[in-house]
Amino acid sequence: MINALLVERDIENSIELANTIHMKIKNLRISAITNKLTNIKHVLTKHDIDIILMNINCFQNMKTIKEDKFLNSKYKNSVILISNNKSIKNNSISRSYIYDYITNTDNISNLIEPINELVKLKIDNKVYNIKDSKENITKKKIKKELANLRYKLSHKGTQYIIETIYFLYKTSDYYNNNYERDIYPIIAQKLETSAHNIKCNIRNATEKMKSTWEENELLKYLNNPSDSNLGPKRIIEFVLTKI
Fold first, then answer.
1. Extents of the domains making up the chain
2. Residue 140 belongs to what H/E stretch?
3. What is the pTM of this model?
């Protein structure tokens, strides 16, 4: 759900616009209404607002709008200004915050269409951010497990292992993959290097990690004291079981 702040001095207009939005636009909620420009900063602090709908027909002091520092970078391209005054574009807040200007309010579609477009844009951004957050969370788990194994996180090979594990994490049948043939070329393309470079750096990082352990101690940590195969694939598959 996208949350909007409605800035409107006329209460009747506020109610009419809020009702129209409720009926016409899915996934948009008027979370707050204010009739004072000076209240905007307080409302934005108190509420999780995504977009701002500002009807400035009734506000005489345009200088206040232009100079007030109530917006931050979160609201770039997030404000729709509503006015019958066509000079609004030259007498309003910084254009970097403006998604659209609505200067003909007689036809309700002139209001609904740009608001609906902005809502869809915000939904797309939220979905992207959620995906990005999930990737970051997963990679943090991977880094934690590699640190527990005593990999040096600053080592280039460790960075390649992180990318490899994350890619395999998203692949359901990773046990059947030949890393050199199927996986390393994909990671190499993403990181703009060669599959051979990926393989060598991962191997070097793994050998340095192994040198910090007694072999029996490492095998015990990997929950398989009888397994003498301690190559990168064995380590990677172990980490995959931990995330």
1. 2-128, 149-240
2. helix 108-148
3. 0.52
